[in-house]
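Thread title: Can someone regenerate the structure for this chain?

I was given the following input by a collaborator and told the matching structure tokens would be attached. They weren't. Posting the sequence so someone can regenerate them.
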Amino acid sequence: MIALGIVLIIEGIGPLLFPNRWRAYLKEISNQNQQLLQRLGGGLVTAGVVLLIIFS
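Best answer:
Regenerated them for you:
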């Protein structure tokens, strides 16, 4: 639950401090190729798993 709380805090910083940039960023992301987004998501999941293994 602590990790989930930290993720929510980090994810909330962008829209809280830079709402206009955050909106533009989301528009840019929504225009990307689906395969690119899947690779990005897979890379983030892999990095998260590696970090969990290293630090646990």
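Residues 19 and 25 are 10 Å apart (CA to CA).
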